[in-house]
């Protein structure tokens, strides 16, 4: 984006991959919850055991306090690019995430079509009714029209870089011809190329 390099951790939606989703989500500063707008699809996701509910709850529980909601597949609503459908989904998701602990006023809701690229990087001409998203939080307000601008409005967390280096290992890969590759996230301190580190 214009302000940040954003690393996307694409967590699978399917129930069989819930462990991967938890691993990915626990590393994130912000969650982008993708909700399908198609007839029946949204209803399945927001139902009692639906993935929309499950993922929003997991994200909050794992400490991801910033949220963006992308209302996807706007091209397959009835009629296509329906404002009423977007508003219905926004209302329903707002009410659910509020119960979990998110403040809906601080969450950007963006109607998008990933397939056609509507409102992803550029404003779509197919949704003239959408005047843009706006969020209010104690750090200030932000507004925009596209998903990329919502990513640009994420507040970066303050990282404890003044403390000793701590890097919990998530996984270790053995790659032929390259060697052993440890994977993890720097929680405190600073890691730089050429440093000699000891794993305890």
From TrEMBL:
InterPro entries: P-loop_NTPase, T_Tr_GTP-bd_dom, TRAFAC_GTPase_members. Keywords: Elongation factor, GTP-binding, Nucleotide-binding, Phosphoprotein, Protein biosynthesis. One of its GO terms (molecular function) is translation elongation factor activity. Pfam families: GTP_EFTU. The keyword Nucleotide-binding applies. It comes from the Eukaryota. Transmembrane segments: none annotated. Residues 1-161 form the Tr-type G domain. This is Elongation factor 1-alpha. It comes from Epipompilus bushi.
């Amino acid at each position: 984006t214009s302000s940040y390099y954003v690393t996307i951790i694409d967590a699978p939606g399917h129930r069989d991959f819930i462990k991967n989703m938890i691993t990915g989500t626990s590393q994130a500063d912000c969650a982008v919850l993708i909700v399908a707008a198609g007839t029946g699809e949204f209803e399945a996701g927001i139902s009692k055991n639906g993935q929309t509910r499950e993922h929003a709850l997991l994200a909050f529980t794992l400490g991801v306090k910033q949220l963006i909601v992308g209302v996807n597949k706007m091209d397959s609503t009835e009629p296509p690019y329906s404002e009423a459908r977007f508003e219905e989904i926004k209302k329903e998701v707002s009410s659910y995430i509020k119960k979990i602990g998110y403040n809906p006023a601080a969450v950007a809701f963006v109607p998008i079509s990933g397939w056609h690229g509507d409102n992803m990087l550029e404003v779509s001409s197919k949704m003239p009714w959408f005047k843009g998203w706006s969020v209010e939080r104690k750090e200030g307000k932000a507004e925009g029209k596209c998903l990329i601008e919502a990513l640009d409005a994420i507040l970066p967390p303050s990282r404890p870089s003044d403390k000793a280096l701590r890097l919990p290992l998530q996984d270790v890969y053995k790659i032929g011809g390259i060697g052993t590759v440890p994977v993890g996230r720097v929680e405190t301190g600073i890691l730089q190329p050429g440093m000699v580190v000891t794993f305890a």
